[in-house]
Design a protein that fits this description.
The complex is a heterodimer. Helices cover 78% and strands 0% of the residues of chain A. By secondary structure, chain A is mostly helical. The longest helix of chain A has 34 residues. Chain B is globular. Classes of the chains: A mainly alpha, B mainly alpha.
């Protein structure tokens, strides 16, 4: 394979610079005692202290994590069962119909999901707040879990299930002893994606959250609309480190299990 | 549906989900698009949508989405192409994707500082002797930030389809006397067109429906279809009109998806195009 030419290297370096400069710019100024994002005065950790002393902010962080964990858990459970159900649908037309319904929420723009869920919750009479946010996050995470689990199920040989049936396993045993252990990497991948989708979501939450409840991204939005506060910078530095840790951890976990089992989850 | 396990109990939650959160919301949006502020049946929302104000807004939203998608392809294609030729390409690709995992709001917030009157962008301009410019709250800043955010979603599918090309085909083309440019134009580009298509799909639709960047970066200079929906639902409280715009956004989405063909497996999904 030919080595990269010089212009190519310069171009790639430029793209990487553009991609990372804003992020490091944010983090750099989180240490600025000046209070603005221009003109660095002195090194300080006061903005980090401000984050950790702000009880309201900490509660919002806690809310965000709880919503993410709960929605990822519940959507993984429903999604895995749904995917298994789809695999067992023998009617091809029916299966394709369910699969296209499954992709609707993946391809829909956030505004539409948010707006239509807002109508739905109002019609049903659900009070906007924790419950509506949690239910929305579960709803938009389910199809992602299904998509992550399906390939694993498709690659599983049906003779495994026939063998289990012949050996006298009940339906429940087949599910918990044969199918679920086999598709475990897919389940983990789905859970992880659901978690990050929930943590990352702004638009849908923005629509269905009431006045009393906020997740981190909704809070950052209202702070950013009010102008520059270096507390956001400190917060984003912390979020960056956590995100990086999650992504890299997931990547290496995946690499390792791919090397061990010869079957990889999705490539990041 | 003859199999014994075709309708086991554990499917119930999934089907309830489809009914409640896929079918019902779409039906409700369509239903509300026929309601006026008082809740009576009307076609006025549709008449409004085709009036000059909304028509112009739709056109400008499409124009911005087109611009954003086009520039993203221009930047992402060479990036993806050269990335496939690097030594540790999977690692480099991961590094391209990591910024897409950082919350959109934080990236938009960074640009509020960068494009601010005293920010680094203006310092650079002043270094070249021009006065401080108002960069924030212009359509330039909107397009720039949107392209910045979408680049990883464009690079990923293009990279995947370029990476799949059998190198023997390229060698064959060169052996048969094609120049580098002809090889690219006649062999590489047609073989990787699906990657470009899924990239366009992953960028164009979100670009039509963004409202975070327009609010934070473009002030009220740029109104996309997404901004208009948010405005109608959360500010004006006119759910009927908001639903009508949403119906059209769904229609545009379907048309774009038909035009760009079936999505490549795992194309945009691994990134977060939302």
């Amino acid at each position: 394979m030919a080595k990269l030419s010089k212009p190519a290297k310069i171009y790639l370096a430029f793209v990487f610079f553009i991609l990372y400069a804003p992020i490091f710019y944010l983090i750099f100024y989180s240490f600025n005692s000046g209070g603005t994002m221009s003109g660095f005065e002195n090194f300080t950790l006061e903005h980090y202290a401000a984050v950790f002393n702000d009880t309201r902010l900490l509660i919002i962080v806690l809310n965000t994590v709880i919503v993410a964990l709960l929605s990822a858990l519940i959507s993984t459970a429903i999604g895995v069962l749904g995917a298994i159900g789809i695999i067992f649908l023998r009617n091809r037309k029916m299966r394709n119909a369910v699969l296209s319904l499954n992709t609707v929420l993946i391809v829909s723009p956030d505004v539409i999901i948010g707006a239509s869920f807002l109508i739905l919750f109002t019609m049903v009479g659900v009070k906007l707040g924790f419950a509506s946010v949690l239910v929305s996050h579960i709803a938009f995470s389910i199809p992602i879990v299904v998509i992550m689990v399906l390939p694993k199920l498709q690659e599983m040989s049906s003779s495994l299930i026939d063998a289990a049936t012949d050996l006298g396993a009940s339906q429940r045993d087949i599910l918990t002893r044969v199918i679920i252990p086999y598709i475990k990497p897919g389940i983990f991948a789905g859970f992880f994606l659901a978690l990050t989708y929930s943590l990352d979501d702004f638009a849908v939450t923005f629509f269905v959250t009431g006045n009393g409840f906020a997740t981190l991204s909704v809070e950052i939005y209202s702070m950013a609309r009010a102008g520059i506060t270096l507390t956001i910078n400190a917060l984003s530095a912390l979020i960056f480190v956590v995100t990086l840790g999650l992504v890299l951890g997931y990547y290496f976990f995946n690499q390792r299990s791919a090397a061990n089992a010869g079957t990889g989850g999705p490539r990041p | 549906m003859t199999n014994r396990s075709s309708r086991p109990w554990y499917l119930a939650p999934y089907y309830i989900w489809i009914l409640l959160f896929v079918i019902a919301p779409i039906a409700l949006v369509v239903y509300f698009s026929f309601l006026d502020l008082a809740g009576d049946f009307t076609l006025e929302n549709y008449a409004n949508f085709f009036s000059s104000t909304y028509f112009r807004m739709t056109l400008s939203s499409f124009w911005y989405a087109f611009l954003i998608t086009f520039i993203s392809v221009l930047i992402a294609y060479p990036t993806a192409y050269w990335l496939t030729k690097t030594k540790h390409k999977q690692l480099w690709l991961l590094l391209i994707i990591i910024p897409s995992w950082i919350n959109l709001l934080l990236k938009a917030y960074a640009f509020i500082g960068i494009f601010g009157l005293y920010g680094p962008a203006n310092q650079l301009i002043q270094f070249f002797g021009a006065g401080p410019l108002q960069i924030l709250f212009t359509d330039f800043s909107f397009v720039f930030v949107a392209v910045y955010i979408f680049i990883p979603f464009m690079v990923l599918p293009i990279f995947n389809s370029l990476d799949k090309i059998n190198p023997a085909l390229i060698d064959a083309s060169r052996d048969l006397g094609a120049s580098q440019w002809t090889t690219f134009r006649r062999v590489i580009f047609p073989l990787a067109i699906n990657g470009v298509k899924s990239g366009v799909q992953a960028v164009f639709i979100p670009a039509l429906s963004l409202f975070v960047i327009t609010r934070l970066i473009a002030g009220n200079k740029v109104i996309t279809l997404g901004t208009a929906i948010e405005q109608q639902f959360l500010v004006t409280q006119n759910w009927g009109m908001g639903s009508t715009i949403a119906v059209f956004l769904i229609l545009f989405m379907i048309i774009i998806m038909l035009l760009t063909g079936p999505k490549e497996k795992g194309g945009a999904l691994n990134g977060k195009a939302k």
